[in-house]
Amino acid sequence: MNISRVDLNLLVYLDVLLRERNVTRSAAHLGITQPAMSNGLRRLRTLLDDPLLIRTSEGMAPTERALELQPQVRDILASIERAIEPKGEFDPATAKRVVRVMASDYAESTLIPLLLSRLAQEAPDITLDVLTPSDVALEDVEQGRVDMLLNRFDEIPESFHQSTVWRDDFSCLLSVDNPLNKDFNLDNYLSSRHVWVSKTGMGASVGMNPQDSQRLGWVDEALKAIGQQRHIAVFPRHYLVAALLSQQADLIATLPSQLARLQRDNSRVCLHPPPFEIPSFELKMAWSPLLQHNPYHQWIRRLVVELGRQLSHNSANE
Q1: Check: CATH 3.40.190.10 for 97-167+282-316?
Q2: What's the distance, CA 172 to chain centroid?
Q3: How high is the mean pLDDT in each 10-residue block of the chain (318 residues)?
């Protein structure tokens, strides 16, 4: 095959077709008509001597050859994108774009306000689009449609780049009217009713089981390690709701310290260190290898890391 006779646009078509597995959606993604997309698929089948996508009862399914080609095509297009990417310094002061960030409730409450404030100073025409974990599929990040993930990850695709934004531990929020403030120990902690907050990951979940300590996360796993279990009275999914509920005199919210400190000026609550050891955790930033060398993306990543260090330093000095 003479490569000079191959329309490289067909590789773009193939990349989108193998991701969407639907001709109509692929056409919409590329901004072309459905007949043009169908024609592209026909040309790909002729070029590669393979049907590539086969119609089944569950939709279009890739052939074995298509699955072999998918990572190769993605690598080829990534190399081309890097080769033609404009070089030079990114100028945040004149940039006009939307930054799409998937942020957990924890990151949204602690880091995003700082990021927004800095963008207002340095890049006033950059807009933040903050997405929740249930809004985003990993392939959205892989393809660069989402700029970055800000979350705590148990697992993440090996192809993704990642960096630690900060490490955090835990604090307990109690109402000023809670009598346990006078003697906050493990026995009193265990005798209380508790607010639990989701350890948010990617995708939606369906309800919680108070007996499932592993799924409940770090606090309950730490209690299980010492042979104890707390009484969870309510399962909100948002940290700020948990902080609000901690103002009730009979409830305790055990939250990441960076988030609990947002309530330090709230006269209705008190902060205490947990009366048992809970391992610390990391807030991480992850992004697609497609964006690794992009000057704009390098700038926004440096800014996120700088803000993380700044917040950690301020917290250490309080």
Answers
A1: yes
A2: 25
A3: 72 88 86 89 92 88 92 82 67 92 92 96 95 84 89 81 93 96 96 82 50 68 94 90 94 95 94 96 90 89 94 76
